Amino acid sequence: MRGLITTRTAPAIFVLLWSTGFTGIRYGIPYAPPFTFIAIRMAIASVLLALISLAITRHFRYDRATVGKSVLVGLTIHGAYLGGCFYGVKQGMPAGITALICSLQPVLVSIFSSVFFSEKLSLRKWLGLGLGLAGLVMVIAPKLEGSGDQVLPIAGVIAVFIALLGGTSGTLLQKKFGSGVEVLSGTSWQYVATGILMGSLALIFEEDQSITWNASFIFSLTWLIVALSIGAILILYFLLARSSASSVSSLYYLVPAVTAVEAYFLFGEKIGLVTAVGTLVTIAGVALVVTQGRAREVSNP
Q: In this structure, what are the phi and psi dihedrals at residue 176, rounded to the nearest 5 degrees?
């Protein structure tokens, strides 16, 4: 496994896994309230990561610094992000548009990184970010006209933008504090904090917390825990520890394209010409950002 996850392979694996999160939500959300769903997912994931930490490192850290920093990161990168995404999809937001809005994160991360982390944005990187944003606009604009059956719920849109802000701030906080926290113990504490928050929200806002334990819900829950909460998140932290925050976040530009392909095969959603062209423009933008970041990493070991 260690040989499989390298600085060259990790970006592609991360994009593939992260994209399945949106289709995974769509599979499972009809059978459980969103906050209850996340609370269960976080509870199981936190225990699994604690056990993995004990098995690999022989200890589980619970000092004040580890818990404090992890709680702060967890409430943003998991709590706000997952809560917004799940609630938005439950309100009727399509998985593809949810992914598109969340993939605006690289723009926000790059801007804030230049302010807080002094990460210089070269002309090449600005061009890459601009192309990525232009590609996203090409894809999302036709779907926001509200014509036909495609009318987006206001509550859902607001929730997904909260997810966008949560993912952005969480990425920046993880970049700032992540190097000083043992990753397995820290991530487990992140999930504990998120689980408590989501459980509280479920008790306050969800009158019916019943769950339909069918095959679709169990598969969705299992996949989101193993592939996303453990696999994708650990790869994300692996990348953040080795690359700039803006370079890593640029990978989110690719997620809507991969999600669209998955939705085509899983749900029969068609990919139009404009979507295809926008996807190619987005990929070109990501290539400009990521390749520059790798070149810098090689020259500055």
A: -75, -45
- Domain-located, residue 1: no
In this predicted model, what pLDDT tens digit does every residue of 14-65 receive, in sequence order?
A: 999 999 998 899 889 999 999 999 999 999 999 999 999 999 888 899 999 9
What tokens were used for 217? 């819900």
Total count of domains within the chain: 1
- Written as one letter, the residue type at 12 is A
How does pLDDT run across 78-126, given as a tens digit for each residue? 999 999 999 999 998 887 778 878 878 877 887 787 777 776 778 887 8
Looking at the domain assignment, is residue 4 inside a domain?
A: no
**227 and 28 in contact (C-beta within 8 Å)?**
no
Half-sphere exposure for 161 (CA within 13 Å, toward CB): 7
- Candidates 277, 281, 275, 280; CA nearest to 260 is 275
| pTM exceeds 0.85, yes or no | no
